[in-house]
Amino acid sequence: MEHKSERAFVRMTGVGHRYDPTPGSPMAVQNIDLDINRHEFVAVVGPSGCGKSTLLRMVSGLLVPSEGDVSVFGKKVNGPRDDVGIVFQKPTLLPWLSVRKNVLFPLKHKFGRYGAQDEKRANELLAMAGLEAFADKMPDELSGGMQQRVGIVRALLLNPDILLMDEPFSALDAMTREQIGFDLLKIWDEQPKTVLFITHSISEAVLLADRVLVMSKRPGSVLDLIDIDLPRPRNTQTINNPRFSELTDRIRNHIYEPDAH
Amino acid sequence: MSQTPTEAAARRALLLNLSPWLFFVGLIVLWELVCRVFSLPNYVLPAPTAIFSAFFDVEFSRWMMHLWATLRVALMGFALSIVISIPLAIAMMRSEFLSRTLYPLLVVIQSTPVVAVAPLIIVMMGSDDPSRVLITCLLTFFPLVVSTATGINETPEELIELSRSLDAPLRRETWQIRIPYAIPHIFSGLKVAITLAIIGAVVAEFVAAEEGLGYFIQFSTSFFKIPQAFAGLFFLAAVSLLLFKSVQWTQQIFFAWSLPKKK
C-alpha cells in the first residue's frame, strides 16, 4: 500500500488567472496556493462566479493560468492531460450510444477503438456503480441520477489519477443527491483517486471531503482551508455528529460574513 | 353515458388519426359537387372524376418516362447538395475566416430567385441534366448548410472539453461528437431540401425540357388539356410527398434516437 506521499500530488503556487489578457483587467482567481495529496478528496466551495471552475480547468490543463504554476507530481501542467477524469454538472452523455458505449467513449474517442478487455472493464465499473442492468439501455431511458452515475463511470474508464468534478450533483433532486454522494465515496474507497470536487453545497462539501477549500467572491482567492476531521466511512449518521455542524458553521461564516457589513 | 374513459380516449385517438383523411375525402367530394352543380367547364376547374380518367388516358410508360426524368434530376441535385453542404458547414464551423468570407455569398445566392437565374444557366450550360441538377442544387443547398451549421454549433461545450481533455484528434471530435449532434438538425434540413429538389427540377423543366412531369404539366396546359395537367400536378405532389416521407422513414429507422421524445 502506498502511503500519503510527502510531496504534494497536485500543487498550485501563486496561481492567478484573467480571461482577458490585457494587463490590469479583472482577475478571475488570484493568489491561490494549494497542495493536494495523493488520493485526497478536496472540495471547493464559494459564491457563484468565484472561479471554482477556473481552478478545476487549470488542473485539467484545459486552461493555462496567466500567473503562477500548477504541477502534478512535480511536473508543470501546460496542456490538456489525459490522466484526469472530468465529471460535468450535466451528465452530457451521447444520446445515440448505449450506456456501455458511453462509458467506453473516451477510449473510442482517444484511440478510435477499444478491445474486449476494455468492455470487460466497462462492465465491471458499471457493476460497481450498480448499473449493470442498464448497460444496454439508451441514456434517455435512465433517470437523472443514473445518468450522472454513468458520467462518473465514464470518467473512471481510463483509470485516471485525478478525478475532477464540476458541481456534479447540482442538477439532481435533494434525495438523489445525498444518495449519489455516498455512492461516490464508496467508489472512491474502491478506486482511490485524487478528487477535486466543486460544489455550491456546504453540507455536501463537509460530508464528502477530507479538506474543504473556501473561496472568496470574485476575484477568487483562498479564504480558508479546513480539515474535515469527521470519521470515515461517512454516512447519514455523520450529519448528526456535532462536529459536522461546527464545520459547516465555520464555512458558512466565511461565506456570509463579508456581506454582513 | 355508459362509455368508459379508455373507450372515450380510444375513440378520440381514432378520430384524430382519421380526421386528415376524412377532411381530404370531404374536400374532393365538395370539389366534384361544385363542378357539377355549376357545370364548370374543364378549363376553369376540371372535376376530380375528369382528372382521374385523364390520368388513366395517359399510358403508364409515358408516366414512368416523365417521372424518371424529374426524379433523376431532383435526386441528383439533392445528393449533390448534401455532398456540398455538409462538408461546407463543417469547414465554416472550423474556420472563422472561411465562414466570414463565404456566408455573405451564400445569402446572396439564397436571396436570388432561382426561377430568374434558371434561363441563364440553361443558356450557359445547355439544356441537359447538368444544368438542371445545378438549378436544383442552388435551391436545396442553403437550408442544408444552415441546418447543419446550427446543429454543429449546438454541441454541448462540455463534450468539446471532454474531447480536448482526451487530446483526441479534431477529425474524431467532428465525426464522433459534432456531426451526430447535428443529425436532428440535418434531418430538418433534408426534409426542406427534398421538397425543394422537386421544385428545382420542375423549374428547370419549365425553362427547357422535352420530358419530365413539369414539362408534362406545361405541355398539357398549352394544349388546353387541363384535366391532364391536373393529373400531372397530383402525380407530382404524390411523388414529392413520398420523397418527404422517405426522408422521415430514414430518420425513424436509422436515427431513431434523434427524434423528439414522445410524452
From TrEMBL, chain A:
ABC transporter domain location: 10-242
Gene Ontology MF terms in the entry: ATP binding
Pfam families per the UniProt record, alphabetical: ABC_tran
Gene3D superfamilies given in the database record: P-loop containing nucleotide triphosphate hydrolases
Key word Transport present: yes
Keyword annotations: ATP-binding, Nucleotide-binding, Transport
PROSITE patterns: ABC_TRANSPORTER_1, ABC_TRANSPORTER_2
Tree of life domain: Bacteria
Family statement drawn from the similarity comment of this UniProt entry: Belongs to the ABC transporter superfamily.
PANTHER family referenced in this protein's UniProt entry, alphabetically: ALIPHATIC SULFONATES IMPORT ATP-BINDING PROTEIN SSUB, TAURINE IMPORT ATP-BINDING PROTEIN-RELATED
Record protein name field: ABC transporter ATP-binding protein
Organism, scientific name: Pseudomonas neustonica
TrEMBL record, chain B:
Domain (ABC transmembrane type-1) ranges: 67-245
Parts of the chain that traverse the membrane: 21-45, 65-90, 102-127, 133-152, 181-204, 224-244
Record carries keyword Ubl conjugation: no
Keywords, in A-Z order: Cell membrane, Membrane, Transmembrane, Transmembrane helix, Transport
Locations listed in the record: Cell membrane
Mode of membrane association: Multi-pass membrane protein
InterPro entries with a match to the protein in the record: MetI-like, MetI-like_sf
Entries under Pfam families matching the protein: BPD_transp_1 (PF00528)
Chief location category: membrane
Domain of life: Bacteria
Family note: Belongs to the binding-protein-dependent transport system permease family.
Protein name: ABC transporter permease
